[in-house]
Design brief:
The structure is a homodimer.
Chain A (H helix, E strand, L loop, with lengths): L6 H8 L3 H8 L7 H13 L6 H8 L4 E6 L6 H15 L3 E6 L4 H12 L5 E5 L9 H5 L4 E4 L10 E4 L1 H14 L5 E4 L6 H16 L16 H11 L8 E4 L2 H13 L9 E6 L12 E4 L2 H16 L9 E3 L2 E3 L10
Parallel strand pairs in A: 1-2, 1-3, 3-4, 4-5, 5-10, 6-7, 7-8, 8-9
Antiparallel strand pairs in A: 9-11
Helix pairs in contact in A: 1-2, 5-12, 8-9, 10-11
The first copy, chain A, binds a DNA duplex (16 and 16 nucleotides) through helix 2 and helix 4.
DNA sequence: ATGAAAGCGCTAACAT
DNA sequence: ATGTTAGCGCTTTCAT
């Protein structure tokens, strides 16, 4: 296992030069037929694999891209990864996963991996840049595509969904069902994605002339147990809601779980809408009404953009916006009397 | 971004040799104090990062390990990844994710990544080796740790759970509740993990003197919709079960979803036990009774073993067996009259 | 304690 | 169409 053959071994055994072997193995079309086959055959026979470090050093490419997310633990990212991976593989790139856990140091680390040649480009899905002065300037011309989240004023190409529109649409569905007291469990709010979804909620409420009472917009963090906690708080208000629009499915599961503990029926007493459409959302009970995003497609698009940049193309300056659909399932029903 | 400083840049600016810079930056303890600090300061100031390809080429190490799973789409692996990653990072290694989707070609590809220097070692979680003659021999002495699944006759160190014992325990719980007609939705059955879980089921049934009627052991593949399909088939049998032990949570969700469609109540009409304890299993309705595995711990242990091998240590020859616990929640109840 | 020089395995000019 | 040569950026003998 450890005595890996190198190009020179093949060259010596065949009485040709290392360069010829290299050329033959890289489909350069510069090696003539008797030699070509002999080299390829022997390479296969010897189970030859080019040493990536040597090649990368020479070509200054890693043929790898970095996909950085804020939490690998969130299955939501997995399908995006699949889209990214499929597209990357087809182009001969491999994909490295980066996990920041919202830690600024780790964010920096992944940017460093770009600089030290670990990867050639990056798909960033953590709505922020490391908090260091001058950081933005130092990476402004790096091959980076931002997906799902937005990084403003950086000039990076983006792949987005219309969070505000989708949220508004979801809340309108609730309003159409006759709900008046609709609360919103939001994401971490300084972040753009959370703000957009909340804006959509507010816009729908305003358009319908519905008030947003104090305490109707608790701020969450996309985690299951936070959904539980915030739901509990909501029902200690003097006027609890009859419907809740939750910023993601994971928290929505927590909300529904807590509702059940409180003895409330979903959707008879309280309607719930989520956002993401996780693979379990339909099998959940009741099947979750939620906003579905084309995740694989998002991954594919982001990677395609990145490949474009990597091959010298100029990336689109306006973001690609992917369509969402509201999946109306079992957690929403007409408002109780 | 593209004009990355190299060791020589630092050396020139400081009037020292490249070798000294390299030594200073690698904590070799061979550089004296006035120089040492000057080098380190300048390196930081210039934001220097050693080029990994050059370093790896020279040292013949990648400082990376490969974690290969059969389906990145399964959230089950994410927590294991977290354990692996934490341990790896602490030792200065990064972790690459490999996804085989049960495709033999892709399996080979990841083994190749070991040979071409992409990674130094591998944590394998796909209960099988690529089907090529002589393959086992060709990788027998590679730094590989097998986790969750077993690869027999290969001499690789393993991190396992007692699948059979845990399964048996789960079924005994059902039996203790008075169930007689207990079915088992298994995993893909030529594979050892699936077989062990099924053996546990059979053992418990045999010990209680309970028969396993025809059709009571449908073979699945760990996927949600397969759980649905197999559950449906189970209830077309002349004597349907009153309890089902399902080989993983994902299929268990499908089973429960289907049960509901069939108008059957869980757990009043049918009890269900899963295996895995996914992060959503408790928030599911009813909260899923299931076998919980120490996932993070499994990842940590596997990576620790791999580090040990990588640093020249001899790996334990007998597998590390991690404890499981049966979480009794809301999907199991006494057998209906 | 530091420098000089060699070389990891590969690819890409530049010859021929 | 193939060989020769140089060098990617780093670490590591071997000198001094």
């Amino acid at each position: 296992m450890n005595d890996r053959p190198k190009i020179k071994d093949i060259a010596v055994r065949l009485g040709v030069s290392a360069a010829t072997v290299s050329r033959a193995l890289s489909d350069s079309g510069l090696v003539a037929e008797p030699t070509l086959s002999r080299i390829r055959d022997l390479a296969r026979e010897m189970n030859y694999r080019p040493n990536v470090s040597a090649r990368n050093l020479r070509t200054k490419k890693a043929m790898a891209v970095l996909m950085v997310v804020r939490d690998v633990g969130n299955p939501f990212y997995l399908e995006i990864l699949k889209g990214v991976e499929a597209t990357a593989r087809a182009a001969g790139y491999s994909v490295l996963m980066g996990n920041t856990e919202n830690d600024s140091d780790r964010e920096v680390e992944y940017f460093d991996m770009l600089r030290d040649g670990h990867a050639d480009g990056m798909i960033l899905m953590t709505g922020k840049l490391p908090e260091r002065e001058g950081f933005l300037a130092s990476v402004a011309d790096a091959p980076i595509v931002v997906a799902l989240e937005a990084i403003e004023n950086a000039g990076f190409p983006h792949v987005l969904i219309d969070n505000q529109g989708a949220a508004q649409n979801a809340v309108e569905h609730l309003i159409g069902l006759g709900h008046k007291r609709i609360a919103h469990v939001s994401g971490p709010v300084p972040e753009i994605m959370s703000i957009h979804r909340r804006d959509g909620y507010r816009k729908a409420m305003a358009a319908a002339g519905l008030p947003i009472p104090d305490g109707y917009e608790p701020v969450g963090d996309y985690l299951l147990h936070t959904g539980q906690r915030l739901c509990h708080a909501l029902f200690e208000l003097p006027q609890p809601p009859t419907a809740i629009f939750v910023a993601n499915d994971e928290m929505a599961f927590g909300v529904i779980h807590e509702l059940r503990k409180l003895g409330l029926d979903v959707p008879a007493d309280v309607s719930v809408v989520g956002f993401d459409d996780l693979f379990l959302s339909e099998a959940f009970y009741p099947p979750l009404t939620t906003v579905s995003q084309p995740r694989t497609e998002i991954g594919r698009t982001a990677m395609t953009m990145l490949l474009d940049i990597l091959s010298g193309g100029l990336a689109a300056r306006q973001p690609a916006t992917m369509p969402t659909t509201l999946k109306i399932r079992g957690t929403t029903a007409p408002a109780p009397k």
